[in-house]
C-alpha cells in the first residue's frame, strides 16, 4: 500500500512537472512568436524609449532647494514621461527680491547636489549640469585675464625729423584693465587713410611699462598707433547678483574668454572638476556638461591671438592691424580680406578652443557635452555649424512670445524659431542623430507665467519638428521646497513644467505626443534634395526654414560650411554623400546665408551681425579644388564661378590660381546662353535655379498639396528615410479644420496614417499612385498633425478603393445646458455651481469662478435612445467637447475615456454609452494665471496662491487680462461610419 501510494505520488509529480514544462515551453514559444513578429517601429511609436523622451531644464534659482523637493521633482518627471534633467543654478527670478537659498558650492549645496545625483541614478534618469551660476561659463573664479576681451587703439599724429618723448594716448580701458599689443608708426600720404604695408614700422619696444614712448621720428608726417586690449564691457560679459543681474550672491563674475583654451582649462579646474568629484562621491554619473545660449556679446582678442591667427591663416597679422583702427592697408580689397581673415580666426578660435576643447575635457571625464552653440543673439562672427560639429548634444531654441496678439492662432514669426533649421542641418551634416531645442521659452509682459496650455504650445512644437528638431528640452521646471506652496516661486522665463502646475496629472498626454513625434523623427536620415554651400565670408549662419524662391515649395535642403565640404563630402552614384549616410542631389554654391534680403536681415538682426544677401564672389583655393574633385567624381554643382580667392594668404598669386581652376570647371559657360557643361563624371550648371534643375532631371517635389501655389506655408512637412521605410510628418499651420489632397514622392508602398496624439494608426484606404508619387486625402483639425508612413510594398498600379481615409461624422445631438459643476473651495471656487449655458469662467460674476484656477467637474445626465441609429454595422459614436480651456479628462458612466488637450476635442464613447441614463463627467483644468491675477488684487492674508508679490517686467499683475477658462463647447455626439 505504501509503495503504491508513493508510486502514485511520483507519477502525479512527473505529470505535473511535464505539464509545467509544457506550459513554460508554450509561453516561450508564444513570446518568441510575438518577438519575431513585433512591429518595433509601431510599438516604440506608441510607447517611446527614453532616448526619444523629453529633457527638462531644471532650475535651482538662488539654490533654494531641499532634498524633499529634489526627490519629488525627479520622481514626478520620471512618472510623467521626462527622461532627463539639465540642472542650472542661477538667480533669474520672476519676483522683486532674491529668495533665501543655500550657498552655491558650499557644503550644504554639495550635499543637495549629491542627493540629486543619487536620486537620478536610482530612477535611471539622465542628468546634466550647466557649468555656471548662470547660463554660459561665468563666475567668481574667472579673472580679468581669463575674461572676454576686445581690441582697442588710440593714435597720435606727429612729424619729423624730430624726437618724440612722452606718454602715448591711452586706448579705452574697461574696469582699469588694459594691456598693450603693439605700437606701430606709418605714413599716410595726402591726408588719406591708405597705408603701404611696407612702410609700417613696429615700435613696440619703444614703449615702456608706464606708457612712456621715445622715438626719433623720421622726416614726414606720421601716425603713431597704439593698439591693445581691454575687457569687452558688454552688460552680460560680467554677471551681477539679482536684482542688478541674473545670478545669486556668490555667483557673480566674468564670462570666460571663449577664444582661449587656457581660460577654459582654468574654469574647468575650478568648477568642472568640483562637480565631477561631488558626482563621484555620490556614486553617480553626470551624463553631460552644458553651456547654454550665447548672450554675452562680442569679443575680438585673446592673449595669444597673434599666434592663433598665424596658425589658422598662415601669415602674420601685425602689418595689417591698422585695418582694425579704420585704416586701409595696401588697398580696399586687401583690407577687406584681412578683416574677413580676422573674423574667420575668431570663428575658428570659438569653434576649436572653446567648443572643441570643452568637448575634449568632457570626453576625458567620461561625459558628453551639450551646447546651444549658435547664439541666439548678439554674437561675434561664428561658423555655427563648425561649433556644433564639436557637440554631442546640439541645441537651438524657440520662443512663444506674441501668442495672444497673433490673428493666426499662434505667432508664426520666423524670429521665434530662427536657429532651429541651423541646429538641425548641423546634426545632419555632422552625423548627429538628435537635434535638440530649448522649447517654449517666453518672456513678455502680462503673459509669461502660467498663461499657455498644451494646445497653445502645440503649433510651436509642430513648427520646430518641421524645421528638423527631434528632441525637446522643456524650458523650464523650477525646483523648490513643497512647503513653498502652489504655484510657487518661479524662474523669469519660459513655461513651467513641474508638479506645481494645474495640469500636471494630465501632462503625460501632451508629453507622450511630443515623445512620439521625437521618436519618429529620430529614425533614419533626413531627406533633402539640395545642399546649399554657405561660403567662407563671416559670419557663417544658416537661415530658418522658408520657401526658397530658387527651389520652390515641396523641396527641402541642408546647408554646409567649408569644413564639411572639405573633410566630409564625397560622391557616390551621382549623389553628394557624407560619411554618416546623408546625401543630396545638388550642391548649390549659394555663398551666403540667404539670397533673400528679408531672411538675411532677420538673421543678422537676431544675431547682432551684418549678414549680406549678396553671394560672395570669393572662394579659397582648397575649396575650389575640392569642388573640382566632387564634380569629376560625378556631383552636380550649381552656381557661378568665383572671381578671386577668399583669403589674403599668398595674395595676389592666390587669385590667379583660383581663376585658373574656375576656368577649368566653368569653361565657356556664361550663365545665360550657355548654362551647363560636363566635367569628368559630373556637371556644373550656372544660370538655372535648383528647382528648375530638379524638375528637368525628373525629380518631383517631395511634398505637395492642393492650393500650395497660392498658400505654400498653409501646411508643412519633414521627411525621414529609414531603410525601406519613408516617414513624413505633416502639419496644419492654421487654426481651422482642413481637408486636402497631399502628394508624397513615394510609390510602390502602402500609405499608413499614424496619429501621435492618440497613438492609433490606420491604413490609408483612399489613395492613388502616379509616376513616382502617391496622393491621399488627409483631414487635419486645427494645428493637427499626422505621420504618413510608407513601408509595406504594393504594386505601383494599386490604388485605394474607398472614398475617404477617415470616418464620416454625422451629428446626432447637442448636449445643451444646464451643466452642474463642482469647484474646489480650497482655491476659492464654489462647491457647487450651475451653468445654464457653456461660457468661460471669466464671464461669470462670482469672483470664486471668475478668478478660479484648477479643476472643475462638469456633470450632465442624458439619454441617447431618440438619437441612436440601432445596430447599423460599423457605427461608432464620438463625444465632441467643441472647445476646452485648457485640458479635459472625460468619464462616461464611470468609465475613464482619457485626457483631451487639443483639437479635435473628441473621444470615442461607443463602448461606454447606453441608450438611457448616461452620466457624463468632465474634469476641466485651466491655468494658474487667473487665480494669481485675482490674488494680486487681494490683501496677502486673503490670497489662495503662494507666489511672488510682484512679478518682474510686469509679467503678471492685477490688471493682466484674464484667460478664457472652462468647457466652452458646444458639446455634441456624433456617429461615425467608416467608408
UniProtKB/TrEMBL annotation:
InterPro entries: Galactose-bd-like_sf. Keywords: Hydrolase, Signal. One of its GO terms (molecular function) is hydrolase activity. The keyword Hydrolase applies. Gene3D superfamilies: Galactose-binding domain-like (2.60.120.260). PANTHER family: GLYCOSYL HYDROLASE (PTHR43817), HYDROLASE, FAMILY 43, PUTATIVE (AFU_ORTHOLOGUE AFUA_3G01660)-RELATED (PTHR43817:SF1). This is Glycosyl hydrolase. It comes from Chitinophaga oryziterrae.
Amino acid at each position: 500500500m505504501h509503495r503504491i501510494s508513493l508510486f502514485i505520488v511520483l507519477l502525479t509529480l512527473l505529470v505535473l512537472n511535464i505539464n509545467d514544462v509544457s506550459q513554460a515551453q508554450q509561453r516561450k514559444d508564444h513570446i518568441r512568436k510575438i518577438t519575431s513578429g513585433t512591429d518595433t517601429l509601431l510599438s516604440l511609436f506608441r510607447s517611446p524609449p527614453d532616448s526619444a523622451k523629453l529633457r527638462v531644464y531644471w532650475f535651482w534659482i538662488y539654490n533654494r532647494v531641499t532634498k524633499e523637493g529634489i526627490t519629488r521633482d525627479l520622481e514626478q518627471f520620471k512618472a510623467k514621461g521626462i527622461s532627463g534633467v539639465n540642472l542650472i543654478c542661477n538667480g533669474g527670478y520672476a519676483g522683486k527680491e532674491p529668495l533665501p537659498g543655500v550657498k552655491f558650492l558650499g557644503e550644504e549645496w554639495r550635499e543637495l547636489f549629491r542627493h540629486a545625483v543619487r536620486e537620478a541614478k536610482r530612477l535611471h534618469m539622465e542628468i546634466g549640469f550647466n557649468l555656471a551660476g548662470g547660463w554660459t561659463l561665468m563666475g567668481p573664479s574667472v579673472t580679468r585675464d581669463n575674461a572676454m576681451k576686445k581690441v582697442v587703439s588710440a593714435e597720435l599724429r606727429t612729424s619729423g625729423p624730430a624726437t618724440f618723448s612722452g606718454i602715448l594716448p591711452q586706448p579705452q580701458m574697461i574696469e582699469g584693465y588694459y594691456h598693450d599689443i603693439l605700437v606701430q608708426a606709418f605714413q599716410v600720404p595726402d591726408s588719406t587713410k591708405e597705408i603701404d604695408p611696407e612702410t609700417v614700422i613696429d615700435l613696440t619696444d619703444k614703449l615702456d611699462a608706464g606708457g612712456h614712448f621715445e622715438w626719433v621720428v623720421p622726416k614726414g608726417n606720421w601716425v603713431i598707433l597704439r593698439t591693445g586690449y581691454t575687457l569687452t564691457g558688454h552688460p552680460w560679459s560680467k554677471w551681477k547678483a539679482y536684482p542688478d543681474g541674473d545670478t545669486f550672491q556668490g555667483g557673480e563674475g566674468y564670462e570666460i574668454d571663449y577664444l582661449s583654451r587656457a581660460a577654459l582649462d582654468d574654469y574647468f579646474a575650478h568648477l568642472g572638476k568640483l562637480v565631477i568629484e561631488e558626482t563621484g562621491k555620490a556614486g553617480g554619473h553626470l551624463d553631460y556638461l552644458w553651456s547654454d545660449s550665447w548672450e554675452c556679446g562680442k569679443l575680438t582678442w585673446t592673449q595669444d591671438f597673434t599666434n592663433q591667427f598665424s596658425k589658422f591663416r598662415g601669415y602674420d597679422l601685425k602689418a595689417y592691424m591698422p585695418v582694425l583702427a579704420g585704416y586701409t592697408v595696401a588697398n580696399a580689397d586687401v583690407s577687406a580680406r584681412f578683416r574677413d581673415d580676422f573674423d574667420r580666426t575668431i570663428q575658428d578660435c570659438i569653434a576649436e578652443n572653446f567648443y572643441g576643447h570643452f568637448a575634449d575635457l568632457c570626453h576625458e571625464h567620461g561625459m558628453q557635452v551639450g551646447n546651444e552653440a549658435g547664439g541666439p543673439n548678439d554674437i561675434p562672427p561664428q561658423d555655427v555649424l563648425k561649433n556644433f560639429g564639436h557637440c554631442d548634444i546640439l541645441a537651438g531654441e524657440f520662443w512663444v512670445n506674441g501668442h495672444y496678439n497673433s490673428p493666426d492662432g499662434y505667432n508664426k514669426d520666423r524670429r521665434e524659431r530662427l536657429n532651429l533649421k541651423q541646429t538641425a542641418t548641423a546634426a545632419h551634416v555632422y552625423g548627429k542623430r538628435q537635434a535638440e531645442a530649448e522649447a517654449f521659452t517666453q518672456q513678455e509682459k502680462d503673459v509669461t507665467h502660467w498663461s499657455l496650455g498644451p494646445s497653445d504650445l502645440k503649433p510651436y512644437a509642430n513648427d520646430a519638428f518641421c524645421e528638423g528638431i527631434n528632441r525637446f528640452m522643456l524650458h523650464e521646471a523650477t525646483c523648490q521646497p513643497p512647503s513653498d506652496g502652489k504655484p510657487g516661486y518661479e524662474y523669469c522665463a519660459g513655461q513651467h513644467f513641474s508638479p506645481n502646475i494645474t495640469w500636471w496629472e494630465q501632462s503625460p498626454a501632451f508629453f507622450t505626443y511630443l515623445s512620439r513625434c521625437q521618436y519618429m523623427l529620430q529614425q533614419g536620415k533626413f531627406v533633402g534634395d539640395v545642399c546649399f554651400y554657405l561660403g567662407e565670408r563671416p559670419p557663417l549662419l544658416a537661415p530658418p526654414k522658408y520657401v526658397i524662391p530658387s527651389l520652390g515649395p515641396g523641396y527641402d535642403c541642408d546647408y554646409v560650411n567649408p569644413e564639411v565640404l572639405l573633410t566630409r563630402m564625397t560622391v557616390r552614384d551621382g549623389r553628394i554623400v557624407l560619411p554618416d549616410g546623408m546625401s543630396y542631389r545638388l550642391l548649390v554654391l549659394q555663398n551666403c546665408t540667404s539670397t533673400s534680403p528679408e531672411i538675411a536681415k532677420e538673421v543678422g538682426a537676431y544675431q547682432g551681425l551684418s549678414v549680406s544677401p549678396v553671394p560672395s564672389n570669393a572662394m579659397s583655393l582648397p575649396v575650389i579644388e575640392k569642388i573640382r574633385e566632387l564634380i569629376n567624381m560625378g556631383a552636380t554643382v550649381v552656381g557661378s564661378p568665383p572671381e578671386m580667392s577668399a583669403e589674403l594668404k599668398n595674395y595676389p598669386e592666390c587669385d590667379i590660381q583660383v581663376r585658373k581652376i574656375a576656368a577649368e570647371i566653368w569653361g565657356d559657360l556664361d550663365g545665360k546662353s550657355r548654362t551647363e557643361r560636363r566635367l569628368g563624371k559630373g556637371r556644373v550648371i550656372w544660370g538655372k535655379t535648383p528647382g528648375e534643375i530638379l524638375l528637368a532631371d525628373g525629380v518631383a517635389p517631395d511634398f505637395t498639396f492642393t492650393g500650395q501655389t497660392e498658400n505654400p506655408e498653409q501646411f508643412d512637412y519633414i521627411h525621414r528615410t529609414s531603410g525601406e521605410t519613408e516617414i513624413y510628418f505633416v502639419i496644419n499651420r492654421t487654426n481651422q479644420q482642413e481637408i486636402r489632397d497631399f502628394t508624397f514622392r513615394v510609390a510602390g508602398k502602402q500609405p499608413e496614417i499614424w496619429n501621435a496624439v492618440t497613438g492609433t494608426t490606420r491604413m490609408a484606404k483612399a489613395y492613388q499612385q502616379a509616376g513616382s508619387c502617391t496622393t491621399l486625402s488627409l483631414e487635419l483639425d486645427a494645428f493637427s498633425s499626422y505621420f504618413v508612413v510608407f513601408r509595406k510594398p504594393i504594386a505601383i498600379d494599386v490604388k485605394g478603393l474607398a472614398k475617404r481615409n477617415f470616418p464620416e461624422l454625422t451629428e446626432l445631438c447637442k448636449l445643451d445646458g444646464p451643466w452642474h459643476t463642482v469647484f474646489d473651495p480650497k482655491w476659492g471656487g464654489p462647491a457647487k455651481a450651475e451653468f445654464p449655458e457653456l461660457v468661460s469662467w471669466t464671464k461669470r460674476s462670482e469672483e470664486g469662478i471668475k478668478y478660479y484656477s484648477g479643476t472643475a467637474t462638469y456633470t450632465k445626465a442624458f439619454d441617447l435612445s431618440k438619437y441612436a441609429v440601432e445596430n447599423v454595422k460599423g457605427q461608432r459614436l464620438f463625444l465632441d467637447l467643441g472647445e476646452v480651456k485648457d485640458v479635459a479628462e472625460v468619464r462616461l458612466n464611470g468609465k475613464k475615456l482619457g485626457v483631451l488637450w487639443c483639437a479635435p476635442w473628441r473621444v470615442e464613447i461607443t463602448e461606454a454609452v447606453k441608450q438611457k441614463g448616461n452620466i457624463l463627467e468632465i474634469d476641466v483644468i485651466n491655468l494658474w494665471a487667473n487665480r494669481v491675477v485675482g490674488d494680486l488684487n487681494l490683501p496677502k492674508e486673503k490670497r489662495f496662491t503662494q507666489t511672488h508679490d510682484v512679478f518682474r517686467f510686469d509679467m503678471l499683475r492685477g490688471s493682466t487680462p484674464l484667460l478664457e477658462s472652462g468647457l466652452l463647447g458646444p458639446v455634441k455626439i456624433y456617429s461615425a461610419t467608416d467608408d
